[in-house]
Design the sequence.
């Protein structure tokens, strides 16, 4: 349903709030499943950090996805919303002891381990609990990605993963520990990647590293996890509501040299939920100065921090006006100069009470919300809830 058709539903709700187009989410999930089902041994783990709204999680779980978690809180939430423990993988550079204990007790599929000190702690805790922890090593492949510097993760300078030069020693260390079992390699080069060349480069690096392991006599690598990273169209979400999953998965099918019996794991987040969400906000005031015209809205960086944090662009629509375009800085009420959604932005003439939709906010919108300035966390509504 076109977002403008929901104007009446939006006007009766207290703003700001998150709106989730569950019809589009269902279409996106079906597209992903349709592409991966044609490839043997492909497994999907939804990256919960993108959006942890329980209503969204339940839809993703019911579509047959596993989960990629980066905290104990995410593991608990996934278990509460029906994700089988043996389809949950656990990543993160700083896993606390209680989080490791929680994961072991639940019986998750495997840990994505990011350092030797972490491996040793997992081994100690698993031994104390009488468990054997299955581990994949997250290898930093030193592969760049065409994306914002704040969301690249695969360079040597980034905090994530074990350097590729230390991969062999990490695997050999794990083989000496009775309470851990090495089951694979994990990679992730960044987020909001739109150029398939970046994923091709990752495939080439993984091929090299697998050859290196085999040359050292380590041939049993059950799982290859390539993370996620596929981006979405922030400029024109209605033109490209569903990302090009065919190109994405086919890139791995063509360029990654999987060994017989290997399983390939993906951890998509933004590409799954990014386009289904919008932040709905209301214009409080229009303020004019000698050089600027401000549309001051009741939504802020506390509901959608990406523009302030990454200088990220989101399409903004005034769904209350069809008047001639004027130029506005669209800003929130928080006491920070960075509380700006867009500068010099063309919108139909905007007045107090008009409803604005800030699009493509399904990923890293609600999940990064804060209560700065003692602002209340906003509500969320699905399409079905708005229409009921």
Sequence:
């Amino acid at each position: 349903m076109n977002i403008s058709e929901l104007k009446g539903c939006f006007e009766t709700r207290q703003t700001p709030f998150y709106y989730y187009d569950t019809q589009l989410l269902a279409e996106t999930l079906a597209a992903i499943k349709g592409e991966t089902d044609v490839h043997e041994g492909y497994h999907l783990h939804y990256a919960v950090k993108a959006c942890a709204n329980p209503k969204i999680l339940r839809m993703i779980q019911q579509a047959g996805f596993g989960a990629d978690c980066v905290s104990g809180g995410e593991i608990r939430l996934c278990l509460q919303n029906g994700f089988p423990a043996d389809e949950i993988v656990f990543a993160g550079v700083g896993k606390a002891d209680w989080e490791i204990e929680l994961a072991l007790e639940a019986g998750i599929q495997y840990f994505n381990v990011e350092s030797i000190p972490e491996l040793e702690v997992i081994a100690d805790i698993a031994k104390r609990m009488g468990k054997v922890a299955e581990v994949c090593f997250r290898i930093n492949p030193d592969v760049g990605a065409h994306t914002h510097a704040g969301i690249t993760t695969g360079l040597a300078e980034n905090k994530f993963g074990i350097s590729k030069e230390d991969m062999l020693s990490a695997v050999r260390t794990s083989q000496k520990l009775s309470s851990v079992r090495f089951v694979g390699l994990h990679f992730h080069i960044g987020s909001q990647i739109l150029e398939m060349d970046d994923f091709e480069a990752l495939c080439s690096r993984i091929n090299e590293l697998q050859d290196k392991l085999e040359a050292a006599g380590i041939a049993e690598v059950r799982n290859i996890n390539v993370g996620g990273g596929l981006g979405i169209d922030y400029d024109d979400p209605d033109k490209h509501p569903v990302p090009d999953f065919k190109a994405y998965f086919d890139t791995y099918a063509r360029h990654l040299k999987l060994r017989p019996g290997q399983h390939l794991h993906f951890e998509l987040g933004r590409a799954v939920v990014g386009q289904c969400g919008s932040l709905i906000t209301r214009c409080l005031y229009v303020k004019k100065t000698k050089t600027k015209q401000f549309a001051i809205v009741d939504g802020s960086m506390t509901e959608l921090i990406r523009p302030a944090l990454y200088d990220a662009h989101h399409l903004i629509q005034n769904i209350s006006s069809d008047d001639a375009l004027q130029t506005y800085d669209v800003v929130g009420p928080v006491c920070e100069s960075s509380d700006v959604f867009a500068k010099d932005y063309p919108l139909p003439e905007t007045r107090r009470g008009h409803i604005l939709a800030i699009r493509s906010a399904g990923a890293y919108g609600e999940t990064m919300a804060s209560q700065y300035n003692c602002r209340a966390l906003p509500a969320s509504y699905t399409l079905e809830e708005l229409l009921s």
